[in-house]
Amino acid sequence: MSVTKQRDALQLLQSISAYPWYVEKFIEHKKAKKNSPSTLLGYLRDFSFFFRWMMTEGLTAAADIREIPLSDLNELKKETVESYILYLQESHLYERSAVLTNPTKSSKKEYSDRTISRKISSLKSLFHYLSALAEDEHGESYLTRNVLAKIEVETTELTPLARAHAIRAKILIDDEIYQFVDFVYNGYLSHCHTTKKQQYHLQNRDRDTAIVAMILSGGFRVSEIVSLNLSDIVLEKNQLKMVRKGKKEDAPFFSDWGKEFLGRYLQTREKYRPSTQEDAVFLAVSPANPHGHRIEVRSVQKLVKKYAKAFGIPDLSVHKLRHSFATQFLRLNPDPHQLQAQLGHSKIETTMQYAHVLEDALSKAVNRTT
């Protein structure tokens, strides 16, 4: 199990006691289905939002989430759930203060249709389990009616070309890859308008540049990069040993270009003052823990967004760096099966989505036709 999954599994264990017993049963059911701890935590967050909304709307007399009885779910009406969907669509207008203990800046942002669909899908999964799959000691379903079965989740199916067009503006192509990495190391300093920010950037730019360059040089997932240990690096072969999705052991490659940035960082790694037992490759420090410890996934996501916004591509995310590598790979090496092996995809269909991102090849083919 990766470090990220271990942390999420621990958080799941610590969080589940705050939910009703029937949610715990649902989580156990999903665990048996081999759902990842991250996925299960996502379910809990969606349930928490809905349960808090029920409490603020007076749909339960419970004073705490874990005390909400099954009977309250059984009595929900279709119109009530539709009201919840409307609330999801408009909750940013109220900064979601009614259901969030500590509203953040993101609470002012409108939920996307995709996010709303996911939150409703989570509830549909819970209600389906309680009404159709689970049973009490008498063999009866926990819920006698499933109101969520009457709610349709609208999903817009995109063609590969439409999906490609949406991705294109959010990834790096050709020279943009090198320009972005150079910006992380050299260009971002001009965006640091205080001495404190300048010092922070100079302290971490070797690490940040190496993380970005490694993802762009091998198409790795952020969780795979964060979970790397020093013993996982095979420098002479440009390989990384890792456990990928589905608990599959793998040894994908990275390029010589990425290797340069990794080597530069490894020479400066000791400045984070890690303990002798710390084997994590990429380190971070904090006021609470001044000795170098494994950087977190969320920290990498935030630093990539920070650099991307300053670079002028605000929609670029750490996962889009993986998209960037995959797109560039297929452009220069038109062999999706090789890319499938490098990315660790189980199905070739997943890999083929990148074949449509660059429209120039298709455009030329159309022109050659007539």
TrEMBL record:
Domain Tyr recombinase, residue spans: 167-367
Pfam families on file: Phage_integrase
Localization (cell): Cytoplasm
Domain of life: Bacteria
InterPro entries registered for this protein in UniProt: CB, DNA_brk_join_enz, Integrase-like_cat_sf, Integrase_catalytic, Integrase_recombinase_N, Tyrosine_recombinase_XerCD
UniProt-listed Gene3D superfamilies: 1.10.150.130, Intergrase catalytic core
UniProt keyword terms in alphabetical order: Cell cycle, Cell division, Chromosome partition, Cytoplasm, DNA integration, DNA recombination, DNA-binding
Core-binding (CB) domain: residues covered: 17-131
PANTHER family for the chain: PHAGE INTEGRASE-RELATED, TYROSINE RECOMBINASE XERC
Protein's name in the database: Tyrosine recombinase XerS
Organismal lineage: Bacteria, Bacillati, Bacillota, Bacilli, Bacillales
Protein's gene: xerS
